[in-house]
Amino acid sequence: MIRTLILDFDGTLADTQTSILATTHAALQEMGLPQPSDDFIRSLIGLPLKDMFLRYPGIKDEAMAQIGFDTYKRLFDPIAEQTFQLFPKVEATLRQLHSATSMKIITASSRMIASQKHLLGLTEIRDCFDLLCGLETVKRQKPAPDMVLYILEATQTDASEALVVGDATYDILMGRGANCRTCAVTYGNQSAEQLSSAQPDFIIDNFEEVGRLALEL
Q1: N or C: which end of the chain has fewer CB within 10 A?
Q2: Which is nearest to 182 in space by CA: 166, 206, 161?
């Protein structure tokens, strides 16, 4: 059995794509900037928010990206409260793991911790998590391995006893860089073909399989 389950947030636990798209468009509109396509925005989900803004048309420098970051943060919660939802089987699977095992369940997200807490507060699974890690946890973000390395040290877990799960190549590369086993989920923001390019150990189609995998390894 895996000792520590390390989970991406957006696109893995929670279906926040609608929230992210709507908030990004609203922020760019407020800034008077061109609107990228939804597909382009989706391709960046998983990166830190400021890095996403640096890639949008019309963002010329770090200062503009910071304005985008701040605008997005201000607009996100009211939009997300209307559109946020967990993916199927997430609640049941995490509750089972939390109640029936000693497995530590931890997030490794590019989303700030306060935002994770707010969104999880809209659900019934906040108490399933031993630790939330986010944008402010480490200096080097995904795909660097730093966040997973931080979690391994904080939980005194060997890399061989941890499983990193995510819906983006950034998540898989982060886990592989820390020498952990990795699992890509295909129901999030990237396709199975995109995810295969990062060479995850496992590729699965629903979150219930994450629970089975964590118990079997």
Answers
A1: N
A2: 166
Give the integer Cα–Cα distance in Å for 133 and 99: 22
Q: Phi first, then psi: what are they for 97, rounded to 5°?
A: -65, -40
Q: How is the chain classified by DSSP, letter by letter? A: --SEEEE-SBTTTEE-HHHHHHHHHHHHHHTT-PPPPHHHHHHHBTB-HHHHHHTSTT--SHHHHHHHHHHHHHHHHHHHHHH-EEPTTHHHHHHHHHHH---EEEEE-SS-HHHHHHHHTTSS-GGG-SEEE-TTT-SS-TTSSHHHHHHHHHHT--GGGEEEEESSHHHHHHHHHTT-EEEEETTSSS-HHHHHTT--SEEESSHHHHHHHHHH-
Residue with tokens 């031993």: 130
Strands of 131-133's sheet in order across: 131-133, 104-108, 4-7, 162-166, 181-185, 202-204
* Angstrom distance (rounded) from CA 177 to CA 56: 28
Q: Is the dihedral of CA 190, 58, 22, 113 positive or negative?
A: positive
Paired strand residues for 86:
14
Give me the sign of the Cα torsion angle 125, 131, 136, 139: negative
Quickly state the pLDDT bin for 46 (edges 50, 70, 90): confident
